[in-house]
Amino acid sequence: MAIEEERLPFFGPSGPPLYLYVHVPFCRSKCPYCAFYSVVPGTGAVEAYLDGLEAEISLRLREGAPFPSLSSVYFGGGTPSLLSPSQWERLFSLLEVFCLRPGAEVTVEANPESLTASHLCLWRERGVTRVSLGVQSLDDEELRILGRSHDSRRARDALGALAASGLSFSADLIFNIPGQTLRRWHRTVREILAFGMDHLSLYELTLEERSAWGRRPPEGMASGYPFYRWSQWYLASRGFFQYEVASFAFNRRWSRHNLAYWNRAPVLGLGPGAWGFLAERRYGNENSLAGYLRKTEEGRLPLAVVEEPDQERDWREAAILALRTAWGISRSLFARRYGPVPLETLLTVIDGLPERFFRKTEDRIALSRRGMAVANAIWERIL
Ligand code: SF4
Fold first, then answer.
1. Residue 342 CB–ligand 1 contact under 6 Å
2. How many angstroms separate the alpha carbon of residue 205 from the centre of ligand 1?
3. pTM, full prediction
4. I want to staple 306 with a disulfide (CB 3.0 to 4.6 A). Which of 9, 132, 283, 341 is the partner?
5. pLDDT above 70 (res 261)
């Protein structure tokens, strides 16, 4: 299969674009496999968070103004749909200091238990272009095992509402859930496509160190490989293009925001627990609401970590991120950005791996479908 030569969002016509990520750190309850920063909000917590965000935005503007106009905005979490429509109104008004480029992508993550018709109406009015729904499964037993706050009926209702909303929408699914059979997985994937989304993200259940299951793993997990390989075959047969290890798009509706991240484009991350990437430095914000608010109230950026550039780490990370995507690595761009020696080292590693894991053209190297299925083993060789 030829590598699709879509122009990647490195640089727009008027200078480097900027991508905005806003972390909304609230969830109705904590899922045992989750390592993202989120808390169940107490009284006044959302308002305090919005105050903190307002302060962080003014600090950022004071420091870096004027920001270039935004190519995308992504509200992630946590569960952004846990904010009420009036809290969303305030959140949108805080962001009015930024300009959007024409055709900018604006995505909101939502969960079925908190998504309402009022959210959809407001988001559409305020320029949201896509909703990404955390479905995870359409099987009640699997949802119970995952500790999700919704059941399959609620997930179907939310998917139906999204299909009727006119917004583009995506769904997240998890495979290799303890006790999950291939037959159940097939049922979930087949059924979900009937709702007409143009994007799917499939994640293998992993035991993150900072999650409850990372500390005490559940029983009954098998290999995710057969789930993944069947999904690659089935989604391709339904017209979905696998443009990244975990992401499938219909009709070229890939997530431009996520592509920016995989291409190490500048991302301004706002909110507690948010990560950003500016001036070739990755930074992480305070990973607790209290710590975040303390710093913003003191008039300081709520930074917990700023990674200094490190040429060796940066090129290896850039190679892995680019190889996650169907476009892979452009030898010429890679050499221009990181130098000929890192490129040579990388090519030596790749040449030592089986040919069938890669698709190569004169300039580009990307993973084949088989390569994507064993991507973690390939990353270990590159790191
Ligand atoms: S998996 Fe999603 S819904 Fe569950 S705790 Fe994590 S962010 Fe919240």
1. no
2. 13
3. 0.92
4. 283
5. yes
Question: Cβ atoms within 10 A of the Cβ of 319, count?
Answer: 24
Q: CB–CB of 100/127 below 8 Å?
A: yes
- Which atom from ligand 1 is nearest to the alpha carbon of 136? 1
Q: Which atom of ligand 1 lies nearest, measured to the CA of 33?
A: 1
Per residue in 95-120, pLDDT (tens digit) is 998 889 999 999 999 999 999 999 99
In tens, the pLDDT along 130-184 reads: 999 999 999 999 999 999 999 999 999 999 999 999 999 999 999 999 999 999 9
Ligand 1 site, residue 134, Cβ cutoff 6 A:
yes
Closest CA to 270 of 236, 238, 296: 296
Domains present along the chain, CATH in parentheses: 18-262 (3.80.30.20), 313-382 (1.10.10.920)
Cα-to-centroid distance, 35 and ligand 1 (Å): 8
- Orientation of helix 45-64 relative to helix 85-94, angle to 10°: 10
